[in-house]
Amino acid sequence: MNILVCIAKAPDTTSKIAFSNDNTAFDENGVQYIVNPYDEWYALVRALEIKEAQGGQVTIITVGTTADESIMRKALAIGADEAVRIDADATDAFFTAMQIAEYAKTKNYDLILTGKETIDFNGSQVGGMLAEHLDFPFISLATKLEITGSTIFCQREIVGGVQEVEVQGPAVVSCAKGMAEQRIPNMRGIMAARSKPLTIVDAAPIDSLTSFTRYSLPAAKSSVKLIDPNNLDELVSLLHNEAKVI
Amino acid sequence: MNLVYINSINGLSKTALEAVTYAKKLGSDVCVITNGAASNDLLSTLGIYGANKVLIDARIDGQDPGQLVKLVWAAAQKTGASTIVFSHDLVGKAVAPRLSVRLKAGLVAGAVSLPENDGTIKVNVFSGKAFGYVRVNTSQRIISLLPNSIQPEQTGQNCPVEAFDSQAGTSQIVVKATKKAEGTIALPEAELVVSAGRGLKGPENWGMIEDLAAALGAATACSRPVADIGWRPHHEHVGQTGIAIRPNLYIAAGISGAIQHLAGVNGSKVIVVINTDAEAPFFKSANYGIIGDAFEVIPRFTEAIKRFKEAQH
Ligand SMILES: Cc1cc2nc3c(=O)[nH]c(=O)nc-3n(C[C@H](O)[C@H](O)[C@H](O)COP(=O)(O)OP(=O)(O)OC[C@H]3O[C@@H](n4cnc5c(N)ncnc54)[C@H](O)[C@@H]3O)c2cc1C
Ligand SMILES: Nc1ncnc2c1ncn2[C@@H]1O[C@H](COP(=O)(O)O)[C@@H](O)[C@H]1O
Fold first, then answer.
1. CB contact under 8 A, A159 and B189
2. CA–CA dist B187, B179 (Å, integer)
């Protein structure tokens, strides 16, 4: 089984979010980057489990700059066999997806996995875009994944429930919570990662379709109004008359 | 012309009405494209929310995003739409990116408001901790609207419904089984949500949470550890790694308010926090707070809601 896992970097979940240059750029000061949790915990680990059970190769791919190599090494330490970095700033989801798709076209992957979304720009876009460009089926928000021959079985989220579906591969699957359990890389994995291949590929000429012009922070909540725990009628009346939500 | 894709498989959801209202507010005529077996009578009511016409392809069951993208693409070709609107729900998230590639049209994913004066559109970024303003660099654009960002508005009257043959081919996804949580309100669409965390001590204590939710007509949610230890089903888990919701009212009992939890709920319009610990971080993000024991406060809250509802009748 030949599996490609798309790995993005994301600010650590406890990062303070701030902007610089007149609110046009994310302020990276003091920000720790991690592997986007959905990509690491679910997509990568499930790919490794399938490989361990059936044999094959797990390749991780990142559209990014040299600064992204530390998170790629982490993915190798967890167990991926090889890494590919497409050397470009991931300017928008379309650009990112087209770069990955162009690369994937030259290989024979049985399965391409992405995370549910990146926790910084939260678009949930790259997986569907990849599928469209490659003309593959797309299963989004899968919480279980099995593969037998070319048949891919998934459980996916639907409004108010879950559904079990089957599709003939190759396919793109976006991975959500439930698919696998987080793995902590051990010392042997970290050592082995140093000698695993990390190939750098030139970016294809592709234009972004969108751009972020600026950012803003939500208005701070005015301080909390405390209610007497013995006077819940007051809370109900505030929710009705002041907040107008009930 | 603005085109709106709606999923009408389970009738007309609130998110569908929001998307139609949004397209109407963008200006110009609105055409809706949908699939499945909804009746013409039901679909024609979309006119009340601003649709001029509804196209439906009854052959398509809506399970395969690869087929749905062909449906919406065919409708976009037919209508010459300059803007295509989706709801940023489970279906929209799967189909809109595919359409962006097929049309080579920029996608604004997770819009929270109408375009600004400079044409950019505000979206949620950093899991709701900030907003970004997206410029689309193509003449045609696709917008997927985050649920509960605008309220449906009734401005028009019933509109015509036409059958549409999209020639979208067959579905490549075979559905083996569907399990729906019966009788409960779907969390992503709920306007009122009652949520609880580890402070509740055990799954046997969720009866009072369900009672409060029932009294309000709210959906129930929980923090991540509660889903992880199996006290509550996974689909109720909100936050950074669960689902993000933005109801009008979020009531959190026995939840500390960790940053990863807030990431899923800080888009809520009003937050009520009930916690025994006056220092719990959640109070900083709350509009109303009760420092007290959930085991005493929640049943009293339920009684107060019932009194209020009775007085309204
Ligand atoms: C990468 C990452 C991602 C994460 N993603 C998520 C996520 O998506 N969603 C999420 O929720 N968490 C997430 N977490 C976990 C998060 O950091 C917190 O650990 C979690 O939210 C805490 O859950 P809790 O508030 O239910 O429990 P606790 O932190 O144990 O808090 C329980 C609270 O209940 C109060 N309490 C106790 N008894 C009572 C009582 N009788 N009445 C009222 N109050 C009482 C206590 O004072 C306390 O504030 C994530 C963590 C990481 C590292
Ligand atoms: N720069 C990138 N390089 C590789 N994969 C990416 C990149 N950005 C996003 N992805 C993948 O696409 C998924 C969805 O991202 P997004 O569309 O940004 O929400 C992520 O979970 C990753 O698996």
1. yes
2. 16
**pLDDT mean across residues, chain A:** 95
Annotated domain spans of chain B: 2-163, 187-312
8 Å CB contact of A167 and B304: no
Q: Are the beta carbons of B240 and A123 separated by less than 8 Å?
A: no
Mean pLDDT over residues B67-74, rounded?
98
Residue B174 CB neighbours (<10 A): 14
ipTM for this prediction: 0.91
Query: Measuring CA to CA, which residue among B98, B83, B129, B134 is closest to residue B113?
Result: B134
Write the CATH number of the domain with boundaries B2-163. 3.40.50.620
Distance from CA of B72 to the nearest CA of A (A): 14
Q: Kindly report the average pLDDT of chain B as a whole number.
A: 95
How sure is the predictor about B117, in pLDDT bands with cuts at 50, 70 and 90? very high
- Whether A160 has its CB under 8 Å from any CB of chain B: the answer is yes
How do residues B57-66 score in pLDDT, each as one tens digit? 999 999 999 9
Alpha-helix runs per DSSP H in B26-169: 40-44, 65-79, 90-103
pLDDT for residue B241 = 83
- Reply yes or no on whether the pLDDT at B12 is more than 90: yes
Q: Which domains does chain A have, with CATH numbers?
A: 2-213 (3.40.50.620)
Chain A residues touching residue B134 (CB < 8 angstroms): 210-213
Chain B: give the shortest CA distance to residue A81, in Å: 26
pLDDT grade for B182, boundaries at 50, 70 and 90 = low
Structural fold of domain B187-312: Rossmann fold (3.40.50)
CB-ligand 1 contact for B241 (6 Å cutoff): yes
CB distance A111 to ligand 2 below 6 Å:
no
Percentage of residues in chain A with pLDDT exceeding 90?
Answer: 89
Contacts of A105 in chain B (CB under 8 A): none
Confidence band for A23, pLDDT divided at 50, 70 and 90: very high
For ligand 1, mutation pick of B209, B275, B301 (most atoms within 8 Å of CB): B275
The pLDDT tens digits of the residues spanning A53-108 come to: 999 999 999 999 999 999 999 999 999 999 999 999 999 999 999 999 999 999 99
Q: What is the pLDDT of residue B189?
A: 81
Q: Alpha helices, DSSP H only, in B105-219?
A: 207-216
Q: Across chain B, where does the E strand assignment appear?
A: 2-5, 30-35, 53-57, 83-87, 106-111, 121-125, 130-136, 141-145, 161-163, 174-180, 192-196, 219-222, 249-253, 270-275, 288-291
Interface touch A122/B242, C-beta < 8 Å: no
Q: What is the pLDDT of residue B183?
A: 60
Contact A177, A43 (CB under 8 A): no
CA of A114 to the centre of ligand 2 (A): 7
What is d(CA A187, CA B49) in angstroms, rounded to the nearest whole number?
Answer: 60
Tell me if B2-163 shares its fold with B187-312.
Answer: yes
- Is the Cβ pair A161, B180 closer than 8 Å? yes
